[in-house]
From TrEMBL:
Biased composition (Low complexity): 1-12
Descriptive protein name: TetR family transcriptional regulator
Region of interest (Disordered), residue spans: 1-26
Binding region for DNA: 50-69
MF-aspect GO terms: DNA binding
Gene3D superfamilies: Tetracycline Repressor, domain 2 (1.10.357.10)
Domain of life (superkingdom): Bacteria
Length: 214
């Protein structure tokens, strides 16, 4: 089963945390800390995740977290950037192997079906969890979540355009509406995986969804 694992982060992939100060190098692996924070936010969401949870997961004191990220909001934004960057890399790698628009759409749907199963599915999706809470966020938090959602929608529209151009996909009606319908379906699948409802009977879902574009 393919999981949406996170590759090692480059310094440009996310906002730079606060410096430890002149002559004081950071005493932790930033990528490792963010990977652990990502798991907390995937499992608990933003509002339910406490600084104590983040300290326990990252093995850092609250003082170290505040010094590096200014608090919970800062580590969430950095973790979200880390998560989205990793997810985008997984999707790009899978889609790059597709010889047609239809094959690209199959690969896209397959990534979500696979990520909805097993331990990966029960951990949940950080973007989906954030979308469920977005009405409680201030703009500094909500805008990056909306942007992450928008990039997924744009990726689907690009797949549609390729499939229509090469004749392998038929997109009836408004492509944006169709893209959102597909995205809602796949996000619902991630929610089902969170509570263990996507463990069986999902092998046929890729073909079922693809039939919408015949």
């Amino acid at each position: 089963m393919t999981q949406m694992t996170q590759p090692r982060m480059t310094q440009t992939a996310l906002p730079e945390p606060r410096s430890a100060g002149p002559g004081r190098p950071r005493e932790f692996d930033l990528a490792q800390v963010l990977d652990r924070a990502v798991l907390v936010f995937r499992e608990k969401g933003y509002n339910a995740a406490s600084i104590g949870d983040l300290c326990a997961a990252t093995k850092l004191s609250s003082g170290s977290l505040y010094k590096a990220f200014k608090g919970k909001q800062g580590i969430f934004l950095a973790a979200l950037a880390r998560y989205v960057s990793g997810r985008d890399a997984v999707l790009a790698a899978r889609l790059s192997e597709a010889p047609s628009g239809r094959a690209e759409l199959r690969a896209f749907i397959s990534v979500y079906v696979e990520a909805s199963q097993g331990a990966e599915g029960r951990t949940g999706c950080m973007v989906v969890a954030a979308l469920a809470e977005i009405t409680t966020f201030d703009p500094a938090l909500s805008e990056p979540v909306r942007q992450a959602y928008g990039r997924l929608e744009a990726r689907i529209l690009g797949i549609f355009a390729r499939g229509q151009a090469d004749g392998t996909l038929r997109v009836c009606g408004d492509p944006v509406t169709r893209a959102r319908l597909l995205l809602y379906t796949l996000q619902g699948m991630r929610l089902a995986g969170k509570v263990g409802c996507a463990e069986a009977g999902t092998a046929h879902l890729v073909d079922e969804v693809l039939q919408l574009f015949d």
